Amino acid sequence: MLLLGVAGLFGLSYSQDKSVEMLDRLDRLQTAQVHAVTAQVAFKTQIQEWKNLLLRGGNEKELAAQLARFKEREAAVQAGLKSLRQELTRLRLDASVAERLSNDHEALGAAYQIALASYRPGTPSTAFTVDASIRGIDRKLNDDIDALARSVEKTGDEELTAFREAGAARYAMLRTVTLTLGALAVLASFGLVYKTVR
Fold it and tell me: How buried is residue 42: exposed, middle or buried, by Cβ count under 10 Å (0-12/13-18/19+)?
């Protein structure tokens, strides 16, 4: 019975440690998902702010205000990708895609700046000219950020499924060990009773 108790306590302690460890990992994965979605949403907003800048930057004051909003979104994308990269590294997952997308995003920012140099506030056709010069330049990065966000979400789902399966396996093992030790304890008790009575 003592052996049964010790085995049960050990099994519970082991299961608890594994559960805490996995829940901490799942929490980190959820944080990584938040960073991925933050970068994803910020980039889509940045693209919209670029269009707003071209359409509404009709004078220097309005152009400066629109450019500030565009830069704000640009910084949010970089912050989201940086945080995602750090979280993936902590999780010992591949962070190279997030790093590459961060570099691609910086290169896109430089391309935006070059295109903006030819923008002339107060000239109605300038928005169309600048837009045409970089049309579609953000499409691949947009798709890649979307794919990264989906990949992080998929990893989280897969690890959650693995956690559930591992928990079920630990429970089955603990139940088997407990029942086996219990059966042995009962048999040992019967053996002792039989020896005593005889």
Answer: buried
pTM for this model (two decimals): 0.78
Could you give the count of Cα atoms lying within 13 Å of 68 in the half-sphere of its Cβ? Answer: 6
pLDDT at site 5: 63
Report the 10 Å Cβ neighbour count for 98.
28
| Contact partners, residue 73, CB within 8 Å, separation at least 6 | 42, 43, 45, 46, 49
Low-confidence ranges of the chain (pLDDT < 50): none
* Cα distance between residue 48 and residue 118, in whole Å: 19
| Residue-by-residue DSSP string for 126-146 | HHHHHHHHTTTTTHHHHHHHH
Nearest to 72 by CA among 49, 41, 104: 49
Alpha-carbon distances of 55 from 62, 131, 152, 194, rounded to whole Å = 10, 10, 35, 96
CA dist 110 and 23 (Å) reads 41
